[in-house]
Amino acid sequence: xxxxxxxTTAVVTGAEPGSRAARRPVRNRxxxxxxxxxxxxxxxxxxxxxxxxxxxxxLILINSFKSPSDYASNGPLSIPQAIYTDGIVAFWDRxxxxxxxxxxxxxxxxxAIGAVAISVLNxxxxxxxxxxxxxxxxxxxLLANMxxxxxxxYPLYFMFKEVGLYDNTWSVIIIFIVxxxxxxxxxxxxxxxxxxxxxxxxxALDGAGxxxxxxxxxxxxxxxxxxxxxxxxxxxxxxxxxIPLTFLVSNANQTVPVAIxxxxxxxxxxxxxxxxxxxxxxxxxxxFFLIFQRTLTRGITAxxxx
Length: 306
Hints:
By secondary structure, the chain is mostly helical. It has helices at 8-13, 20-23, 31-64, 68-74, 86-94, 97-128, 134-146, 149-163, 169-193, 197-205, 210-221, 223-239, 242-247, 256-261, 271-291, 293-301. One of its GO terms (cellular component) is plasma membrane.
């Protein structure tokens, strides 16, 4: 006489032996399955967003090397039948692109460095020095960041006319240093306000003055954040259009965005030449971003790692 078998499924599930619930196989639930599916969905969404961002750049690249007749025959989405560089050459020669490129590099570089330096000094006084009326000063700086540029045009135009800096690159440099440093001061003042007091007190006990504390303690620790500000200030200044258009009227002082817009006045608004001008204006900022990509990544992630 054989011994009765034990229904292990019923034991595991707690159901009656021989019932439908007991005969149902026990599924091994994997808690990581849902997480893995969510990761794939997030990856697919990120790829979709990346394609949407890259689509205009690819469209500019395709049409920059396409002849006007090719564009008229096949449309903007077709691959060029032959490499056509006359649009790039025409824009390069017509606007004297090397001069415009140097103006944009010079203005953006000086503004980025000057705005970061002033932001550090202001934020050190507000965030660490704890000057009187700190809260109201930060609120005033925040309100200054909210002002549209159109409000500033006439007062600045009148002021630079009076001092003889109209149609001078330094007028644009001064304006953008003030605008960018206002944002940088607001951001860094919040960062420096949470700076460890123990570190500052230890430096003061060692005999370090305020300038030594700024250069030897605060600046090295906040270098990743300052690198991010430097990169963004450069790119933001490079892409500015309204103020350079207003204050730089001569051809020798204009920047790359103003030179691209000047194609309308020169009646060169065929699509291929316009795409070529946009490509030439995009390449320097793209190269700048690729060079400092690692610095930007380290600066953004520095605050997340202790």
